[in-house]
Structure prediction request, 150 residues.
Amino acid sequence: MSPTELEPRRAARLGAVQALYQMEMSGASIADVVDEFDAGKLPRESEASLSAVEGDGALFKTLVDGAVNRQATIDRCIARHLGKNWRLDRLDAVARAILRAGATELEQCAETPVAVVIDEYIEIAKGFLDAAEIGFINATLDACARELRA
Prediction:
């Protein structure tokens, strides 16, 4: 996949993480966040190169719909791979959104290699989380990938 093909997908992934976060924090609906994405309001990114890129609408909708409609299944998968005495609701809302979007893509987009999915969500995490949390995201998505792609 060339960099020009990757950029719309990267924008869709970032938009999906932001949408999932927005939905959790404000109670926005799927329709609300899809409208914002279609209007170019998501993703919100300071990098000029990404903010000028139109996102992959199909991937965005797959990630948001899948994370919402399969949230119980996705959350159980994530929770199984958290450290002892950790619960999903104890994680930062941004980390939850990243993990939910990443696990959804692992489950629903089998054509995308696991390494690509994990790398993309690690790059997103770098914009929001510290190094320890980034390592945690990496390990959790890797464990989820072994389960979801088995």
Summary: Confidence is low (pLDDT under 50) at residues 46-51. The radius of gyration is 14 Å. Residues 62 and 141 are 18 Å apart (CA to CA). The first helix runs from residue 3 to 26.
